[in-house]
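REQUEST ID: PR-0412
SUBMITTED BY: lab tech R.K.
PRIORITY: routine
TASK: structure prediction, single protein chain
INPUT:
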Amino acid sequence: ASRNLTIHFASQDNATGEDLTDKTVFKLQSGGKWVDVKKVNMKNLKTGTVHKILASADGYEDEYFSLRIDWYQDELFINGSLRKKTEEKK
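STATUS: complete
OUTPUT:
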């Protein structure tokens, strides 16, 4: 059994708590490729499977999520806590 899945996205700076949601690009892995969630038909997302999500923002380390969503879990809240890149990693 599966249901439609709704995903909510948010992110903030790990150290300061500053809201970075508008500066963050969230991507879903689809067909072996990372696709911007703005280009994904979210109505096609289903429960009962693994969803891989990447949160990226300029000047911050990427944050990666791999979540198995059970058939009865129809709402997912992704809240990325992004760490600033150190000078040597930029």
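NOTES: The chain has a mean pLDDT of 93.
REVIEWED BY: pending
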